Amino acid sequence: MVGSFLRSGAGVKGNLPSWAYKLLHDSLSTQGCFSIGDVDVTDEGYTIRYASPGFCALFGCETSDGLGKRCCNFVGYNCTAGNLSTVAQALGMDLEEAKTRVQFALKCLVQQGMKYRGTWDKPSSGVACAPVLAFNGTSEPFVCEIVLSSRTDLRTTWGYTVILHRDVTDEVPVRKLLEAACPGGGFDQLVQEHKFGLLRRLSSAGINSKSAVQCFQQKVLEVWTGKLIDKVRETAANAQGSCPAWEYRFMLDSLSTQQSFIIGDCDMTNEGVTVRYASPGCCDLFELNASDVGLTRCQKLVGYQCVSRHVGALAAQVGMDVQQVKDRLRFVHDLAVERLASVLIGPWDEPSLHIGFVLALCYKPKCATIFVCEVNLLSRTEPHTGWPYYVGFHRDVTDEVPVKRLLEAACPGGGLEQLVQEQKSRKPTLFEALDIAVHIVDSSALRYLDEHGEGRTVDSGFRLGLRLQQEHEQEPRPFA
């Protein structure tokens, strides 16, 4: 059987004819009940962004009931935990033991989901699968098989998760599930049995899995487009929010021209974040062209990987051995990535309250200059669409922290963290000056970033999608 997900993990070519799309959507909804959610899977599950009619029928809900909610708060663990007393009594289990075993099954699924979560440029080919206890509004929970795959829509670069749901209580009774859901209880074997049978079940339902992915992609584009239309309507109704129009325009102009900042995805790797927007001030500071933005990760563009190509000149500039400079560059980079990772932790409904601050070495290509850059870090979630993004403000501080001084501190015991802290405490941080904080929801600067970033990431996403579709040969890979 032709597989559905690609070796690239990104997408497949072509669109389904309208009649085929409607027919397949109906089959997937009734025979393979599904939902679409964000990629930030937590212990409370994923955020529901779309629920098929079959999903609503299975869980006894309306389409709008679960949108924007974590699935475990709606149909999963947090709901079933309050309805386990009769189940525990029937199985001869202690109530706390039953809850522990239900949570064990859920954690196994969440761990798989996190393990197989990739990024647009480093996609994962893995598929998570596990039976878990679920709730449909009746007095007794049921066993639901969940198949979960994280993907990226090439047209918008929106990361999303497709989740197939199926009532398997007849195959895996609640007793069998709970008896297996403990260390050494055989839960892994139970998971593998269901994963191996997935393609056969789809085939028997008349669902070609390659076409199914095309159907998911078209539905994802509909969901994404709908969110953007809603956002445009909201923005048009109240462009500047509660702040005066003159203040909003001033903030827009000041942030864009006087401040150097980037907006990027939250899918951070060792190569940094993917730059989706760079302000004019950022392009001036780093000597970038607008065409460079939205197509690469920041470390390749201006950071460590860019600077490391000029290590010989840097070694001569600071009077150090080449290998010594390489090691110290890496030390600076590793600390910056560590600080960045701490900022990006936290989904939309549990945002990180940590605002990061790092010193980094960056490169200006036109004048061939390496300089010390102060970076203020913040992670945000656009409240309407649920799109998580990263904001980094930059400032050239070479006059305050010379390149040689930074490299001298960049070694174990060299005092790099102390140097960073001293620089941070010199004066109020940029975020403090702009009255920006994660918990300040009425900040005009944050509203500007939310609205400006959303529009820019859509534009860069479509450009990136065109490039990816042109570069990748779409070879199918097995579904599971």
Largest sheet: 5 strands, antiparallel
Strand content: 15-25%
CATH top level class name of the largest domain: Alpha Beta
The CATH superfamily title of the largest domain:
PAS domain
Contiguous low-pLDDT stretches (5 residues minimum) are 1-12, 436-442, 460-480
Number of discrete domains: 2
Gyration radius, rounded? 25 Å
* CATH topology label of the largest domain: Beta-Lactamase
Enumerate the strands of the largest sheet in spatial order, edge to edge or round the barrel: 3-2-6-5-4
Oligomer: single chain
Question: How far do the termini sit from each other?
Answer: 12 Å
- According to DSSP, the number of beta strands is 12
CATH second-level architecture of the largest domain: 2-Layer Sandwich
Number of helices: 20
The chain-level mean pLDDT equals 75
Tell me what the structure shows.
The protein is of the alpha+beta class and 480 residues long. It folds into two domains: 5-226, Beta-Lactamase (2-Layer Sandwich); 245-471, Beta-Lactamase (2-Layer Sandwich), CATH 3.30.450.20. 45% of the residues lie in helices and 17% in strands. It has 20 helices and twelve strands. It has helices spanning 18-31, 53-59, 71-74, 77-80, 85-91, 95-115, 174-180, 187-196, 198-204, 209-237, 245-258, 280-286, 298-301, 304-307, 311-318, 322-344, 403-409, 416-424, 430-433, 444-471, and strands spanning 5-6, 34-37, 48-51, 128-134, 142-152, 159-167, 260-265, 275-278, 356-364, 369-381, 388-396, 476-477. The strands form three sheets. The protein has a five-stranded antiparallel beta sheet with strand order 3-2-6-5-4, with helices on both faces. A hairpin with a 6-residue loop joins strand 10 (369-381) and strand 11. The chain starts with a strand and ends with a strand. Mean pLDDT is 75; it is low at 1-12, 436-442 and 460-480.
